[in-house]
Structure formats: structure tokens, C-alpha cells
Amino acid sequence: MTGGAAAPAIRAVGLTRRFGDFTAVDRIGFEVAPGEVFGFLGANGAGKSTAIRMLTGLLAPSEGTATVAGHDVATEAEAVKRAIGYMSQRFSLYEDLTPRENARLYGGVYDLPRREVEARFGELIGRLGLGEAADQRVAALPLGWRQKLAFAVALLHRPRVVFLDEPTSGVDPVARRQLWELIYETAAGGTAVLVTTHALDEAESCDRVSILVAGRIVALGAPGELARRHGVGSVEELFVRLARPEREAAR
Amino acid sequence: MSGRAAAGPAVEAEGLGKRFGDTAALADVSFAVEPGEIFGLIGPDGAGKTTLFRLLATLLVPSAGRATVLGLDVVRGLWGLRRRLGYMPGRFSLYPDLSVEENLGFYAAVFGTTIERERERIRPVWEQIEPFRGRRAAALSGGMKQKLALCCALVHRPELLLLDEPTTGVDAVSRRELWDLLADLRAGGLTVLVSTPYMDEAGRCDRVALIHQGRLLAVDPPREIAAGFDRPLVAVAVRDRFAALAALRELPHAESVLPFGATLHLVDRRRDAPAERVAAEVRTHLAARGFADAEVAPAAATIEDVFIARMGG
């Protein structure tokens, strides 16, 4: 990491993953700058999850390279995991614990001093206006609260890059917007945010988006500019035009 | 199917309620679904959509009020109703180890029919999944799973389809395809009650009910719901959205300021202020705060603006 301020938070070059003779991710290349909100779009089965697993150091690439927060995902996977935050709807918080207990557990995993965890958790939960939820069992909380709390916990160790996998799926329209404000706020603090979503109005809320089709990036750019370049009115129209799920047959 | 209009509504709920212990999952829900329409139930997770479906599908007994489906009471008419309904639950509930064709064949057999005999009825859906007939259900993509489940719900020729979140977690392309299928089925005379958390899908329905915390916020054709928004609304396109959100909230008349796709929506609490004037004020305010690139324009409310406004009340 020779990292000047301009070093990308995420950099993928020819990143590829094969499973047997099936190529799930096919030579993708892109960069995400610090403080940027990057929408990582694709149909079910396009290869998003496989790409995210490589970028988070959980799955070794078959070919190509990627650095996240300056660390190589193949050779420095542990350093990558320490530098990133991750949240999805499927895995967010332990339901039988309270948010505070989740934060302590998470802080322990990242070797954060207990006092720092308490202070940072208190600060985040205060800003969310969810102080009353801190000591209730997660299972008893509405989904929108849970997702905001999960986001806060994922930010506890001040990661330089955050991966959000469908963070707003199923949440009410107000909570959805509060989550987006958190995303903006996180980005304004210099953290890069990579987010996936099926609600394509949210793609318009990103600084830039990529569209993955059958493992390849077929469109990459700022939402408005992409729509203009392809002569469509929105990212959703472009997505529907490009993202035919034809690889179904290949799976 | 206008020929059947005399038969009365396909679904009618009056003061319907359901409690689980101290929790009111549904309270005082009244609405009617007319034969031949696509009726959308729109709301987030936990709004009560699934409870309502289970009540109408005779799988739960109401705590209050009553409901009739196809003219039969959901409690007393249970056995007469079941084979006339096609119910697709929100959670994928087919057999993962059976193939596409085995799953469908099984559902057909349970209702005493065969895929062959129902081919015409299920054709629009079956055509899309037939290429994968030999694949295990577990190995299908999200969109294909939902199409298979829809096909299974259709195979016994139900008069009413109850579809609980068929498009949740499904990508935008497959979502469109599912809605196109529902439009085909409606054109064939079927009545469809369908739920979704995606507000932008309201436009695919003839009428929608907005549901939040167990209560209906509105029931109407989607365009009328959006047109009923009664506050001036302006959309702001600006590069630094996070800073602009804070700046816009300084405005004394701002009722809500929220991110909306490419823009920020500001709702003004002065009901009678012309939207053009609000836009001019917002423009001046943002310019004074140094947002040189801000573009401000009056905007038409979406279903989601209405939902958010009514959630508060």
C-alpha cells in the first residue's frame, strides 16, 4: 500500500472466478474511490455474490487481481477483512442478542478496546435515534431498525470500505431512506460504499453503478450519464435492456 | 370478467383483525376485490400482508371482523374454498429435491388433475419454465423459482390467485416478467390478489391497498392515490446530497426532506403554497448555501411519497 489520498478503495483487474467449467465472474475490472457510493447491479445469478465474496477475501480468484483498501484479496485476505465492513439482510445481527451485545461481540472480533466499542456504539445509536433499542433482543425489533443497527455495527471499526448486500430489502420507505442517509453520511466521511439492490430507483442514488451480466460488466458509469449514453430514461430501463437472464441455461 | 360481476366481490373483508398475544398483526381491515382485477397489497415487511393472506387462504382464523372469499366465509366455508384458491406463500415452499416437472406434477395430482390436462391454463407460465423441467427446484434462480411456484398455484384452475410477495428478492428483469404473466392471467379472466414491498410495482395493479403496521392507509387505483397527495413537492438534483439534506431541513416550512432515487424530495407543509414558489424559495436557499449545481423543480408525488406521508399520520 503506497497509498496516497487518490489510491482507489477498491480496484479489480481482470478478476475472474470459475467453478469447474462454469465462469461465474469473467474478467471484471473497476475502481471505487474513497468516499464513493458504487452500485453493484446485476440480475439473480449474474455473479454479484461471487464477486463480492472475492472482494471481501472469502473466495480466492481463479485469475486476475483485486485490492481492497490497498490489500490484495488473494494474498492479504486477513488484512482485507479487517479493513472492511459487511452487511446484508441475510446476515446482519445475532437475533438472540441485543444490539449492544452484538456490538461487543463484533468489537471483540476486531480487537477493539471495550471502551471504544461502547463509546462508538453509543455515538452511532444516538445519531440513529435508536437508543431505546440498544438493550432489546434483536428478534423483537422491526426490520428497519435492525437494518440500521446492523449498518451501525458494521461501521464500528471505522472500515475504509463497506459492502452492503441488499441492505434495504423489505424495509419500509422511511427506513429505506434513513439507510440511504447513513450511506451518504458514511461516504461523506471518506469510506467507500459498494451496495447491491433490486430496487433500481436506488441505483440512481449512487455516484456510479456497474451492471453485471453473465459474469461480465456490461455498463459502468454515473447513472445519469449511462442512461444518456444508452438513450434510455433510467438505470432500470437500461438494466432491463441489458440484463436478460439468458445464462439460466448455463447454470 | 364482467359477465360475472353480478356474483359480487371475489374478496370482501370487513373490520378484519388478527391478534397474536399482545400484538395486533391486523386491525380493522376493510376492502373488496372485484372479479377480474389485479389488486395489490403494498407495504413493507411486518405490515401484516402475510397475516392477511393466511386469513383469506383459510389458514388462520380472524380475531375480529369477517371475510368472504368467492362468496364463502373464510371460517365456515373453509373446505369449499380451498380447492377454488391458488395460494402462493411468501416463502418458497416447493420440494427442493424434486425437479420442476415433479413439483408441478405433484401439485396437479393432489388436486386430481395432470399437467397435460391443464396445459392450456398454465401455458403462459409453463412455457417459461419448461426448458428447465428436469432441473431440481433448489437449483433454479430466484425468478424461476417464483415462476414455478406460480405455476403450481395455477395448476388446479383456481378462481382466485393469492400471491404473497412473488417478486421479493427477485431481480428487476424477472420482476417485470412476473408482472407480465399476471397481466396475461388476468386477461384470461383470473382475479389476482398480490402483495409486494416494492412501491413502484403499484402501477401494475388495477387497484392497490397501502398497508402499514396492520392497517390500511389507502385503497384506490394507484394513479388516484398518487394524485391525492395534498402538499407542494419539489425535487432537488444536487451533487452533494448528504450536505444538501441538512441544508434543506433548515427551511422553516420543510415537512420532510428525503432521498428519492436521483433526487431529494422536499415536501412543504404549507398546503396552499404553489409548488413553483416553493421551488423558487428552495433554489434561493441552496444558492445562498453554496450549492451552485442544484436543480430544483416541482415534482409529481409517487405512491411512495403518499405512503410516507400517511405513515406519519
Question: Mind explaining what this structure looks like?
Answer:
- The complex is a heterodimer of chains A (251) and B (313).
- Chain A has helices at residues 48-55, 77-83, 99-109, 114-128, 143-154, 173-188, 223-229, 235-242; strands at residues 10-19, 22-32, 37-42, 63-68, 71-72, 84-88, 161-165, 192-196, 208-213, 216-221.
- By secondary structure, chain A is α/β, with parallel strands linked by helices.
- Chain A has a 6-stranded mixed sheet. In chain A, strands 2-1-4-5 form a 4-stranded antiparallel sheet, covered by helices on one side.
- Chain A is globular.
- Chain B has 10 helices and 14 strands.
- In chain B, helix 3 packs parallel to helix 5 (142-154).
- The two termini of chain B are 37 Å apart.
- At the A-B interface, helix 6 and helix 8 of A face helix 5, helix 6, helix 8, strand 12 and helix 10 of B.
Radius of gyration of chain B, in Å, reads 23 Å
What's the helical proportion of residues of chain B?
Answer: 25-40%
Distance between the termini of chain A: 38 Å
Shape of chain B: elongated
Number of helices of chain A: 8
How do the SSEs of chain B run, as a string of H and E? EEEHEEHEHHHEHEEEHEHEEHEH
Side by side, the strands of the main sheet of chain B go: 6-7-8-3-9-10
Defining traits:
heterodimer; A: 251 residues; alpha/beta; six-stranded mixed sheet; four-stranded antiparallel sheet; 10 strands; globular; disordered C terminus; B: 313 residues; 33% helix; elongated
Topology of this protein?
The complex is a heterodimer of chains A (251) and B (313).
Chain A: E1 10-19, E2 22-32, E3 37-42, H1 48-55, E4 63-68, E5 71-72, H2 77-83, E6 84-88, H3 99-109, H4 114-128, H5 143-154, E7 161-165, H6 173-188, E8 192-196, E9 208-213, E10 216-221, H7 223-229, H8 235-242
Parallel strand pairs in A: 3-8, 3-9, 6-7, 7-8
Antiparallel strand pairs in A: 1-2, 1-4, 4-5, 9-10
Helix pairs in contact in A: 3-4, 3-5, 4-5, 5-6
Chain B: E1 11-20, E2 23-33, E3 38-42, H1 49-56, E4 64-69, E5 72-73, H2 78-82, E6 85-88, H3 100-110, H4 119-129, H5 142-154, E7 160-163, H6 172-187, E8 191-196, E9 207-212, E10 215-220, H7 222-227, E11 233-237, H8 241-249, E12 254-260, E13 263-268, H9 275-288, E14 295-298, H10 303-312
Parallel strand pairs in B: 3-8, 3-9, 6-7, 7-8
Antiparallel strand pairs in B: 1-2, 1-4, 4-5, 9-10, 11-13, 11-14, 12-13
Helix pairs in contact in B: 3-5, 4-5
